[in-house]
Q: What sequence folds into this?
């Protein structure tokens, strides 16, 4: 059956509409003029060069990296146990539990952010990088769980049984068999959850207090037209890093499925 | 040799809700024997094996291994080792580390190395220590799984359908090798299989299971010659089943009137648990005589017509319809002279010796 060419055209148009605006970001970041409009005045790397000179930006970058690191490690660790339980066991309330874990994907960010702010203030936790990290663990958990679930899906349960059978206890089996076999899935999960945290704005905006993460910093700079090209350069770097991390994550995720049985 | 029971199952039952995966299992396994649990898929044989290994707990009854009650003893503390159906080779370890897995931290390094080399030698994979787990063929994986279990020097080796993933030629070779290995090591092997030929060729004794119950436990030869009922008879090899009525009986003989073949005197089958007046008789296809003339020296004969001829190479199967029985009777003749003596439509005579007619008790 021949595919109607109108459908192909529609698909191409759709993709262009989706991704072209994103591509303007890196394009204008090389523009020597400060106004984001065609025609482009000239080509320059100045905006990138100037990024390194801004201390508050560097501080925000480190804040983001720190929060991302903590959120990635903890959400992956929690997700590891959840995913193993979801795949390996059948228990009462399993569907409800799985649904609850996935819920942050669909709850509006603003609701989560404001309710978390209320909760943390109630608990006496001042908005800081700690509260941002806690919020990001919650947001990143569904990503960790779904990546690790697919890693455990491809993991032959008899591998763990074989280890017990050879006289090795539960914890040592986890360390010597389970962890290394699902390692590619764990790496993929860490990369994805790091990216989720690194790019997140709403929660960080509400919970970061006076310690901005990179997206919060960018937002604060956008208000000043003169800083716009700088923000474009920074945004392009963020875009590139995120895509790179996710591609890397996908590579590891595929490796983990290829390794099954 | 004094025969000692290495495994004793008494009144073992495994229930999942109202479904009994295994029930009423009483079984004594002797030290050094090759025992097979044989049955169709879903009959509960793997459940029994896993209860011995400690992966599942019986709902009722006790499992005793080497004189010790295994209740509450987890798999890692049992003197058994298992070869899994999927082989469960650790994908992140090479062959040497797979085989050494259970010994790590429990023996000096040098000793582990020696034992790994020895175990690999035993399964004819000598020198392959550094080969990656993903570079192994099916047969090699099977051998690694064997070596990894045997290096632990278990009292009992459990094998869950160990050969089902291999192709036919390799399977036959491995049957032979595993039997030899078991004999030279003197370890008790307990194998689960759905393949009757595999069970027959390898085992000292076979336990046949249907629907979670052990139907019969016996040597391959007596399972074949004296199955306890129609179900076992038809599962092990091919069997012609004919109804018969009992005209008279003594302690060890029955006087029966067999459909199509008529009156004859046969031995009572000691394994039958449900005798009666109307019984069924089993006849192995290879024990029937087939001739173009009425055969002499046979107490029972019947005339029939060949309706199907199947050439198997080593033997030839004929299906013969006879008066007095609606199902055709299967006859198997060894291929002695590379000739097929009868064709479709030929009129033939079948001859039956009393010793070939097996009393299978009442039907179901």
A:
């Amino acid at each position: 059956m021949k595919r109607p060419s109108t459908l192909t055209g529609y698909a191409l148009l759709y993709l262009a509409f989706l991704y072209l605006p994103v591509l303007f970001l890196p394009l204008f970041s090389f523009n020597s003029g400060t106004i984001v409009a065609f025609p482009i005045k000239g080509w320059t790397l100045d905006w990138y060069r100037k990024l390194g000179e801004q201390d508050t930006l560097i501080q925000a970058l480190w804040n983001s990296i720190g929060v991302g690191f903590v959120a990635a490690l903890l959400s992956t660790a929690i997700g590891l146990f959840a995913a193993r339980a979801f795949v390996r066991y059948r228990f009462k309330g399993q569907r409800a539990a799985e649904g609850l874990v996935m819920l942050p994907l669909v709850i509006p960010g603003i609701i989560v952010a404001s309710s978390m702010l209320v909760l943390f203030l109630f608990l006496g936790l001042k908005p800081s990088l700690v509260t941002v990290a806690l919020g990001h663990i919650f947001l990143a958990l569904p990503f960790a769980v779904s990546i690790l679930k697919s890693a455990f899906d491809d993991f032959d349960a008899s591998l763990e049984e074989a280890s017990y059978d050879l006289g090795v206890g539960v914890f040592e089996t986890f360390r010597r068999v389970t962890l290394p076999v699902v390692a590619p899935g764990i790496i993929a999960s860490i990369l994805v959850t790091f990216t989720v945290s690194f790019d997140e704005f709403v929660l960080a905006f509400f919970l970061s207090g006076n310690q901005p993460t990179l997206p919060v910093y960018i937002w604060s700079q956008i208000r000043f037209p003169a800083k716009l090209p700088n923000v474009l350069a920074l945004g392009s770097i963020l875009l590139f890093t995120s895509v790179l991390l996710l591609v890397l994550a996908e590579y590891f995720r595929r490796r983990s499925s290829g390794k099954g049985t | 040799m004094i025969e000692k029971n290495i495994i004793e199952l008494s009144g073992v039952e495994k229930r999942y809700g109202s479904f009994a995966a295994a029930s009423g299992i009483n079984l004594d396994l002797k030290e050094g024997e090759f025992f097979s649990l044989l049955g169709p898929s879903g009959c509960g044989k793997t459940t029994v094996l896993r209860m011995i290994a400690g992966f599942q707990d019986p709902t009722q009854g006790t499992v005793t291994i080497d004189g010790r009650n295994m209740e509450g003893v987890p798999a890692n503390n049992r003197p058994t080792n298992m070869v899994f159906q999927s082989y469960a080779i650790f994908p992140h370890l090479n062959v040497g580390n797979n085989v050494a897995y259970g010994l790590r931290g429990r023996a000096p390094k040098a000793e582990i190395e020696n034992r790994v080399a020895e175990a690999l030698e035993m399964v004819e994979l000598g020198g392959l220590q550094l080969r990656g787990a993903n570079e192994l063929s099916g047969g090699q994986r099977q051998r690694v799984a064997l070596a990894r279990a045997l290096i632990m020097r278990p009292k009992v080796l459990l094998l869950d359908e160990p050969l089902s993933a291999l192709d036919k030629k390799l399977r036959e070779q491995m049957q032979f090798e595993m039997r030899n290995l078991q004999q030279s090591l003197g370890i008790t092997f307990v194998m689960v299989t759905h393949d009757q030929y595999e069970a027959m060729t390898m085992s000292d004794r076979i336990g046949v299971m249907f629907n979670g119950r052990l139907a019969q436990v016996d040597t391959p030869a007596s399972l074949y010659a004296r199955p306890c009922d129609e179900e076992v008879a038809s599962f092990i090899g091919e069997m012609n089943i004919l109804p018969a009525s009992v005209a008279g009986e003594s302690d060890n003989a029955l006087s029966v009137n067999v459909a199509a073949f008529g009156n004859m005197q046969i031995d009572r089958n000691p394994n039958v648990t449900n005798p009666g007046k109307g019984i069924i008789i089993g006849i192995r296809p290879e024990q029937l005589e087939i001739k173009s003339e009425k055969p002499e020296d046979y107490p029972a004969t019947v005339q029939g017509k060949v309706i199907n001829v199947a050439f198997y190479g080593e033997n030839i199967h004929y299906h013969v319809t006879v008066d007095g029985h609606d199902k055709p009777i299967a006859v198997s003749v060894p291929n002695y002279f590379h000739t097929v003596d009868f064709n479709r439509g030929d009129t033939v005579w079948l001859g039956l010796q009393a010793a070939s007619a097996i009393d299978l008790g009442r039907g179901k």
Summary: The CA atoms of residues 161 and 193 of chain B lie 5 Å apart. Chain B touches chain A at residues 53-55, 74-77, 80-82, 84-86, 88, 90-92, 101-102, 106, 134, 148-149, 152 (CB under 8 Å). The longest strand of chain B covers residues 5-16.
